[in-house]
């Protein structure tokens, strides 16, 4: 696969949230042309009129010579060489099912989604490969540690692009690199993607503990045990040699578990403070992927039968309505 200058790439960005907005900022300012699909006609009109996303990271101004907002999904995809998926995992299937099965035939797909397809319990890249009959070498995933809010502020950030095709990963890294973003390729697509799913579960559980009044000491133990839980789960599903202390794994986990910008931690904190799941979801303006991830990983582990006390505790709180205080008290006894 040839490596082209940044200005020659055409990217279809799917999604209107904060991460889609941040990625559009990065790649467009680097010279790529972005066809930006948003569901809302009002949001598209606002962007065309003001150059700002009215809902997320509204301080970012876009150059409309490089960024073309639109609501016609098929047209946006047809014009692109790359497709970047940045819609919540719970909604990606109904969005992509609107496309013809051959629509992605000659394109390279990057998932920026930190979740799984609900009910199917499959990774987003696995679903895309099956739905559109794509080779693994056409697929990649983008991982942190990186919060969209800090990208908007142009704070130093690091990204990893995972793909079985190292050339694809390196090419997309080139589209992202600038003075405040460093990007590195990796061949471990599955490991990075599963880690991105599981770190949301851990962050959500950290939020629950924080909402209950637990401090930094307990959270440090929780995150340490979480690394072991992730290692067991990954070894059962994808037993490849990987260094979980690398930033794509541990770094992404830490920033999501501790940051003020983490929507999963915020969601968990609300649940820990006594909000019902429904009321917490209604009050938040963004989707907490961890809510859906908990059920998917819990269901997958029914066959694997790995020791996953954090995932089990989160599942019982969110889906079986067990009191958060009870579950965290039980979880304490399982940590070392």
Give your account of this protein's structure.
This protein has 336 residues and is of the alpha/beta class. The protein has two domains: 6-187, Rossmann fold; 191-332, N-(1-d-carboxylethyl)-l-norvaline Dehydrogenase, domain 2 (Orthogonal Bundle). 51% of the residues lie in helices and 13% in strands. It contains 15 helices and ten strands. It has helices at residues 18-29, 41-50, 73-78, 89-96, 124-132, 148-152, 166-176, 189-211, 216-237, 247-258, 263-272, 277-283, 289-304, 309-319, 324-332; strands at 10-14, 33-37, 67-70, 82-85, 108-111, 116-117, 122-123, 139-143, 157-162, 181-186. The strands form two sheets. Strands 3-2-1-4-5-8-9-10 form an eight-stranded mixed β-sheet, sandwiched between helices. Strands 6-7 form a two-stranded antiparallel sheet. A hairpin with a 4-residue loop joins strand 6 and strand 7. Helix 8 (189-211) crosses helix 14 (309-319). The longest helix has 23 residues, at 189-211. The chain is globular, with a radius of gyration of 19 Å. The termini are far apart.
């Amino acid at each position: 696969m040839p490596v082209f200058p940044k200005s020659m790439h055409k990217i279809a960005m799917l999604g209107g949230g904060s991460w889609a907005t941040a990625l559009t900022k990065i790649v467009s300012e680097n010279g790529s042309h972005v066809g930006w699909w948003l569901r809302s006609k009002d949001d598209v009109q606002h962007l065309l009129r003001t150059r700002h996303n009215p809902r997320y990271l509204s301080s970012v101004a876009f150059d409309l010579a490089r960024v073309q907002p639109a609501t016609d999904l098929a047209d946006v995809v047809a014009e692109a060489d790359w497709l970047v998926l940045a819609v919540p995992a719970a909604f990606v299937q109904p969005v992509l099912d609107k496309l013809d099965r051959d629509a992605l035939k000659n394109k390279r797909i990057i998932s920026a989604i930190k979740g799984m397809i609900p009910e199917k319990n499959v990774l987003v890249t696995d679903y895309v490969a099956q739905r559109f009959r794509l080779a693994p070498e056409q697929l990649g995933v983008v991982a942190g540690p990186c919060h969209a809010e800090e990208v908007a502020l142009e704070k130093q950030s690091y990204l990893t692009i995972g793909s079985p095709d190292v050339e694809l990963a390196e090419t997309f890294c080139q589209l992202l690199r600038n003075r405040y973003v460093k990007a590195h390729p990796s061949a471990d697509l599955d490991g990075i993607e599963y880690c991105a799913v599981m770190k949301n579960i851990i962050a959500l559980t950290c939020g629950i503990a924080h909402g209950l009044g637990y401090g930094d000491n307990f959270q440090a133990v929780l995150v340490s045990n979480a690394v072991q839980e992730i290692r067991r789960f990954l070894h059962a599903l994808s037993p490849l040699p990987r260094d979980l202390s690398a930033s794509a794994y541990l770094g992404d986990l830490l920033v999501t578990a501790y940051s003020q910008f983490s929507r999963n931690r915020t969601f968990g904190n609300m649940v820990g403070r006594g909000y019902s799941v429904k009321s917490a979801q209604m009050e938040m303006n963004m989707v907490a992927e961890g809510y859906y991830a908990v059920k998917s990983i819990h269901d997958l582990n029914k066959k694997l039968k790995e020791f996953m006390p954090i995932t089990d505790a989160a599942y019982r709180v969110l889906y079986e309505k067990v009191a958060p205080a009870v579950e965290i008290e039980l979880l304490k006894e399982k940590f070392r």
